[in-house]
Amino acid sequence: MAMGTVTIVMYHYVRDLRRSRYPRLKALDLDLFREQLAYIKRHYVIITMEELIFAVEQRRGAWRLPPNAALLTFDDGYLDHFINVFPLLDEMRVQGSFFPPARAIRERKVLDVNKIHFVLAACEDPSEIADTVWRAGAAHGLDLAVANERAPKSRHDRPEVAFIKRALQSELPREVRAPLLDKLFARYVTEDEAAFAAELYMNVDHLRCLMRHGMFIGCHSDDHVRLGQLDAEEQARQIDGALEFLVEIGVDLDGWVMCYPYGDVNETLLEILRARRCRIGLTTRVGLAGAENDPLLLPRLDTNDLPKRADAPPNQWATHAGLNGYASQGGR
Ligand SMILES: [Zn+2]
């Protein structure tokens, strides 16, 4: 069973937090990333996206992959990935797969989701922001309390922060939340969005450089929106816009991979992807990927699901991959 599964690990920000301008940002600290990489190297075989595509397409029954295969994925095209992640992967001679949001990079715009992260990181007390959001809702006759009660508990955020994220990402109507978020971003972070975007995301040259060094670049949509909420025409536009961007970077579309923003996908989107010969789709559903999954709906683990110490004993996910016997001789 360990043979046919792959542990796909998902990363977002990876930075030296203490020496960064936003030490409160919810990021993976670079030292911990280093430790986790060592842990993964010890207990897994890091494979390339091309190898996974091959295994998926050749399959009869289980996928033929190295035992304890792992694939490293990096969402959102952060400059963090070029500056902090790439040199480490390059040194280890392993591949990472990177999923940049096309328009944010082309037009130097900061995604709403990133604005929210940095507003939260810049403000000492999130209750101050929660208040502002609450009042903005009330001013438009919206009772955010009801939605707040109904919302599922977040895996990673405290309730107050989860509330702010939900309200600013989806619960407030667009015409309320966009200007509110811009106001908060200008107040707490910066008024120069383009300069901030240039420091936050990779540019086309960074992405091309990653490719020259054997890294994989995939599709993360054009606007980084919840694709499952759009109609088919909009979905197709989101995909085609991003694919055009990938071609501009030099990605070969024979063997392209989709990574769904927020893991949001539905049947019409899957049809669009199939029509464009997408090989693999990455969700945010938590689990190990294997032949029992639709290749366009592969689960992943978050970095927080794995230990962040090189010498940590294998955790429950490694056990699922059948590492028990192997790990016990691993010099704990
Ligand atoms: Zn994303």
Automatic annotation (TrEMBL):
Instruction: List the subcellular locations.
Output: Secreted
Q: What is the lineage of its organism?
A: Bacteria, Pseudomonadati, Acidobacteriota, Blastocatellia, Blastocatellales
Ranges where the record places region Disordered:
308-332
One GO BP on record is:
xylan catabolic process
The name this protein carries in UniProt is Predicted xylanase/chitin deacetylase
Q: Where does it primarily localize?
A: secreted
**Family matches, as PROSITE patterns:** NODB
Is Hydrolase among the key words of this record?
yes
Name the Gene3D superfamilies for this protein. Answer: Glycoside hydrolase/deacetylase
Asked whether the keyword Transcription is assigned, the reply is: no
Question: For this UniProt entry, what's an example GO CC term?
Answer: extracellular region
GO terms for molecular function, please? hydrolase activity, acting on carbon-nitrogen (but not peptide) bonds; hydrolase activity, acting on glycosyl bonds
